[in-house]
Amino acid sequence: MLTVYLFPISYAFLSFPVAALLFTLPFLLVQYRRHGYVHMYRALLLYLFLLYMLNAVFLILLPLPPSVHNAPPAASSYAQWIPFHFVLDVLKETGVDWERPPTYLRLLKERAVLQVVFNVLLTVPFGMFLRYYFRTGWLPCLLLTLGLSLFFETTQVTGIYGIYDYPYRLFDVDDAMTNTAGGLLGFVAAEWLSKRLPRIDKLDERVDLATKRVSYTRRGLAFLIDWIVLNPLVAALAVLRVPLPYAIAVAAYFVVLPYFANGQTLGKWFVRIRLRGKGSRVRLRELLVRYGLLYGVIGGVNALMVGLAARGAGSSIAILPLLLAVFAVNAAFAIHLVMCLFNRKRVLFYERRSGTGHVITPKARKAGRPGVD
């Protein structure tokens, strides 16, 4: 019986690294935007929640039928609507002699009983997470756990929403009831847990964002967002045959916009960082030096190479020196970047020359509530 549950659990653990990788980008964006930094304890809990949800989904989906053209279920109905029908299943299948108490231990090995127990245990962690991490009340916990159970049951009875010709498991109202009971049991257990673990709403109380270093991961996310925004603009200017589309777009987005937005681009705003110069506000000269070196020199030679390739000049022998120059520039910058990544005392050359750096921006205070972040 336990093998039936160990099989999907093993698949959940095997798929967790891939799911965690996909989860990391939105996780970082939300944490930077909401809290201003990533707290390791909060991250640990959320990745544990992801692992739990993977296990829960795999437990209700696996094992799958060998073919999408599966045979219809032997049952005459795709649903079991009688509440507490599992009691009849237990009484019908049990080998317990109710007049002999020592035989009661057999219940722990019987399929009908174990199925009820595992249906309850399936959602206990869900209820615990809802109360401890998401800080919900008992009614939202009840409704969310019931909703999760109905999602599981609907997924099964629809053959994973039409992927399979027929349902390979039946909708059972008892499963919804026992799952919901498990969520509420987890909600109660979380009260004991909450007294022994750090409070989630107190994690940020003593954190001074002004003293925190802006990581390269955070800056990389801002860079990614900025170029997701900027690439269509460069392409549009090129289609409109505007002269020097790359230079115009870069100057407008990375120099003019931060100058008037106190050192922020859209990407930096999203992850709550901004450029600072030698004064309280970043100056135009500092922006010109910083982005002239980064996007004028390094980005410029790459943009020139892309432009020549788009015009069909990439196959010419005369372009070989430019290819070597682009490779040399990119290789030198990559080595410099790696050295800065592994040595916090080193500063990127364009930051050193421009006298600029990054700071975390505080969360906007709500109107009418001074002193509350």
Automatic annotation (TrEMBL):
Keyword Transmembrane helix carried by entry: yes
Intracellular or extracellular location(s): Membrane
Protein name in UniProt: VanZ family protein
TM spans (from-to): 12-32, 44-64, 112-134, 141-164, 176-193, 221-240, 246-267, 288-310, 316-342
Keywords assigned by UniProt, alphabetized: Membrane, Transmembrane, Transmembrane helix
Domain named RDD: residues: 217-345
Membrane topology: Multi-pass membrane protein
Location (main, coarse): membrane
